[in-house]
């Protein structure tokens, strides 16, 4: 028996379908004769049928594989991409090295400028709480009276200039003295200002002033946990039980140029890591100006 009838061309099927649909006899059902037998495929026909199905599937599979191959990159293209990626990684590493070098040089330059600025401010003091009224006379008389009557410093040190740091009547006054020894002499008497609304501070740079705010906040937390700790802030350094700490705006508290949290924990007996991280992430929002009137 021929298997061509199982693979009839599509066009012949359509014509045959049309003829059947157009014939009225096609709609009638021819009853099977009783005892009619169903003709089965022979083994040879079944083998031939499976062979043709296999060829058809192989053809479709080959077409699909060829289509996928055309969409995939060749080995040469992949090697080229890997080479480009390797070059980009090397260039990125070189740029990162240069950036780190530039950052290091910039940090050194900023540190040098900070030191020079601090040197220029050494003979300056900032007086706070001195109310400037119409009856208080000129600023020079106001400062001289404060130094002699409140600080009990005599004779009055010579100063070069007084600059108001604001427009209000109670704005701080920047006083430039002639000699550094006169600055130290006034600072020795600032203990008299405890509990008052007056204050005398060094004229720190912006960087030092910001570091001091962090350090004063940290000192306040340490004294809350350990009131018996001997601690004070001097310039940009926090001293606790003879251990000196500084503040880094990148990593937090420093001890001997390394992370100082563990050393703080050993002194206080409590984990201050979360508090330090809170200061870092909270920025100036989490900081209050705790400098007050006492300054060393």
TrEMBL record:
Lineage of source species: Eukaryota, Metazoa, Ecdysozoa, Arthropoda, Hexapoda
Keywords: Coiled coil
Coiled-coil ranges per UniProt: 71-112
Protein name as annotated: Uncharacterized protein
Coiled coil found in the keyword field: yes
Annotated stretches, region: Disordered: 1-39
